[in-house]
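Reviewers of the previous submission asked for a worked example of the structure-prediction workflow described in the proposal, so we include one complete record here. The input consisted solely of the amino acid sequence. No template or homolog information was supplied to the procedure at any stage.
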Amino acid sequence: MKSGVHASKSLAIGVSLMVFIVTIVLVFYAGSQFNHFHVLWQIAIADLTGTIIIFLFSILFNNSSMYDPYWSVKPIVIATFYFITIPTGEKTIFQILFLLLIGLYALRLTANFYQGWSGLKHEDWRYRNFREKFPGYYWLISFFGIHLFPTIMVYLGCLPMYVIFSQQVAFPLLTFIGIFILFGSVLLAYIADQQLRKFRSNPENNACTMNKGLWKQSRHPNYFGEILTWWGLFFLALGCGLEFWWTGIGALTITLMFLFISIPIMEKRAISKRADFKDYHKSVPMLFPKIF
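From that input alone, the workflow returned the following structure tokens.
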């Protein structure tokens, strides 16, 4: 059974989806058991519960990439939890539109993962590096670095959702800007991912750097889109009141994570794998497109 799951992509995706369905059900149950807590604590406890469950499945299948889609699924799960549990009377069109946009974000990111995933035989190269460098401590590193750390990042990034679902719009212009950024970020990341996938599908490009389309304007347009998503949420929170500035801690920490952890790791590997990357690095901005 286990070898079959690892060998078949379709079966592996089915197993992965079942894991996430079970996890989501248990996450909602865990959150409901602490309804006497503030909703932010409810979300935190439920989120930690989900992370631990996914971690146990990662150990079961000996593959930390079991966690990877959780990054994309979490925001819509958290938004749905807020939508259901926060008693604000009749839901506004703005809140419903936001829920749809977050659903679009989750669909885009999750679909992108499964399109490029070959099944449980595949594990992210960064995780494999951890296995090789720290074999005796791998699962400890996996829990704190691969599972818990991104969980905390996304939890912080979703803080504006508490405001969005508990407050009324006070500054429509900021709300409009937030909606525009959120939708634009999803579209930007989608286009970037599709361009990169088409480029990589050509075997002749195996040792080459993608430098066309959006990738001609930014070295990481997909990451730029991801970062903009969280700033879009922040503007939506500000649209409900400037006193909610503190919800920007999530967008800030996620931006710093990409700037100082994710992107340097990716570019270090690119330099070692592709001879043309150094010239590309010199001529193309890291995140903000040239038009900026």
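The mean pLDDT is 91. We consider this example representative of the routine output the project will generate in years two and three.
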